[in-house]
Amino acid sequence: MPYARLKLIFPIGLFVALFLDGSLSNVFAGNLFSYPYSSVLHLVLLWLIFAVFLDDRDDLSVGLWALFVGLVYDWYYTGVFGVFMISLPLVVYICRQIKPWLDLNFLTLLMVYIINLTIVEAFTFIWYTMGHVINDNLADFAVYTLGPTIAVNLAIFVILYYPMRRLYLSVN
Amino acid sequence: MQKFFSNRKLVIAIVVLIISIGLMSVSVAIRNKRATPPLIQQFGNDVAGAASRVVAWPVNGLQSATNSVSDLLNTYEENQKLKKQVDQLAQAKVNAQTASAENKQLRKQLKLNESLSDYTAVTANVLTRTPSSWMNQLVISKGATAGIKKNMPVMSQTGLIGRIVEVNQTSSKVELISSTSSSANKFAIEITNKAGKTVNGIVSGYDKSSGTLEMGSVTSNVKLKKGDKVVTSGLGGITPKGLYVGTVASVKQDDYGLASEVEIKPAADLSDLTVVTVAE
């Protein structure tokens, strides 16, 4: 597959992931948000991480797309701007910084994904708390939101890792 | 480390931080106002809503397919139960029709044209749910063009589920009654007991652990029992009267022992919503 086609697939897949996040959250609301646990889907983040680490040419302008998709996320889902709009490019920036030092395989990418999930969720929590959008304490957040969120998203990661790697291998 | 926190990067980081906090404060302030969001935000929401519809369609299709399979497996049992109910319902329906016809006549005689219980219903599909553990919001497929306005109550087939918080041209956002955010508007409700006495109050909160709504600061002496019906009271003028909310689950003293607190089991299942009705 030519690289030019990947440049088309990447943004389309990014927005499909964005809307799937919301759509699947509604369909599986009974399972994802069963008290006291609530797990948040992060397909957008997963798609971005795969693009940063699996693409060897680093020519996809992932950072800019992350900014844009973060803006749409805030715009469409929450109406509170400046949260995902900042946290997603931040994560992409951090990933770009640590990529040269990593020996890339399934396990290291899994670890990186856990750290990134934690960064995004913690960022959201801190920002919403500062903006008085929510009032929740840190312990509840860690146990009832962060834990289940990581568990669910890791499962999705495991399922999607090999297909995604094959997609990027076929390009490079 | 020297290189990582160079002067230029530090300045950029601080500027980004300030922009982010500024954007958040402004948008939170706008969100809490009564008017609809700014035109540009409405436009963006409508575009995103259209794209969202394309993605939601196959997902919802898949869900309804699995639902119909599980429905098929339960059909026999359900049929037995429903047959019994149908006989009773026919009787109740005739009663209701006569009562509503009589009600109309009497209202005409009294020259009462608009009552609190009059409303028209707009049916909408649920497009998405906000993927967040704190914001219990849905996006539905009808907006200002269908006559939807901010603060209108939203119901599922079984009962009240929330209210409209943001209206765009072709989509709008619904905040569920399970939302505990401090900015959530509360519903005026009334409970009628078996003896026909009513207690008025306001939904004051949602208890996540038991999944019940709370009606606090009740000082009335009227005895309420488990199973008493709860409907909206129509007081305040925004919500019509008589929308079904749920049933009383328990009545207990509040934390200070002065007033009592009623716990209400909502009739609607808040985690399984595909089609909703907005009451205008």
UniProtKB/TrEMBL annotation, chain A:
Location in the cell: Cell membrane
Listed InterPro entries: Cell_shape_determining_MreD (IPR007227)
UniProt keyword Transmembrane helix present: yes
Ranges that cross the membrane: 35-54, 75-94, 106-129, 141-162
Record's keyword terms, sorted: Cell membrane, Cell shape, Membrane, Transmembrane, Transmembrane helix
Keyword 4Fe-4S belongs to the record: no
Top-level taxon: Bacteria
Membrane topology of the entry: Multi-pass membrane protein
NCBIfam families recorded: shape_MreD
Name the UniProt record assigns to this protein: Rod shape-determining protein MreD
UniProtKB/TrEMBL annotation, chain B:
Domain Rod shape-determining protein MreC beta-barrel core: 126-279
Amino-acid biosynthesis is among the record's keywords: no
Coiled coil: 72-109
Keyword terms of this UniProt record: Cell shape, Coiled coil
Pfam families to which the protein is assigned, alphabetical: MreC
The keyword Coiled coil appears for this protein: yes
Alphabetized InterPro entries for the sequence: Cell/Rod_1, Cell/Rod_MreC_2, MreC, MreC_beta-barrel_core
Similarity-based family: Belongs to the MreC family.
PANTHER family named among the record's database cross-references: CELL SHAPE-DETERMINING PROTEIN MREC
Function comment: Involved in formation and maintenance of cell shape.
Protein name: Cell shape-determining protein MreC
Organism whose genome encodes this protein: Lactiplantibacillus modestisalitolerans
Lineage: Bacteria, Bacillati, Bacillota, Bacilli, Lactobacillales
Gene transcribed to yield this protein: mreC
